[in-house]
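2.7 Reproducibility. Because tokenized structures are sensitive to small changes in the input, we list the exact sequence used for Flavin prenyltransferase UbiX, including any N-terminal residues retained from the expression construct. No trimming or masking was applied before prediction.
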Amino acid sequence: MKKKVVVAVTGASGSIYAKVLFDQLEKLKDQISAVGVVMSDNAKEVWQFELGNENYNHYDQFTFYSKNDFNAPFASGSAKYDTMIIVPCSMGTLGRIAHGISNDLISRAADVILKERRKLIAVVRDTPFSLIHINNMKAVTEAGGIICPANPSFYSLPKSIEEVAGTVISRVLDLAGFEQDSYRWNEK
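Resulting structure tokens (single pass, no recycling of outputs):
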């Protein structure tokens, strides 16, 4: 069965993670029936600053929604989007999700995913964590979400910043249930 995926991009540093995720989802299109994307205003600014472009506009096979478009299909559980990936996930966004504050499409979609007992993966990027951050991560985890810190691995010997980011995105895609060809520890 093909997946329906929501990707939310927030204003935390780490736009490279969103870019690599978009690129990988393009490659996995045979496993996907829909990708809905919502980006905060800050996410677009951070992307432009960190990556030096506005290439998030070039992913034509995804459907982009404005941050306040509550008519997006994934604003309701009836649309049956099965996975939401927030990458990078700011601590502000995580806090709103942890406390059930649905003040934009990102937090509403996360609320829907959690209430429907579907898969929410929050790729948090801040460091260090305050006790408030840790408690918010705990609350989201207890509600059924998955906290996947943007901590790259290096045992695959990545050669570029995109390959480093790819180690995190590979883990995210595994958590989301995609079949993919990626580095596996100690496998030939």
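The first helix runs from residue 15 to 27.
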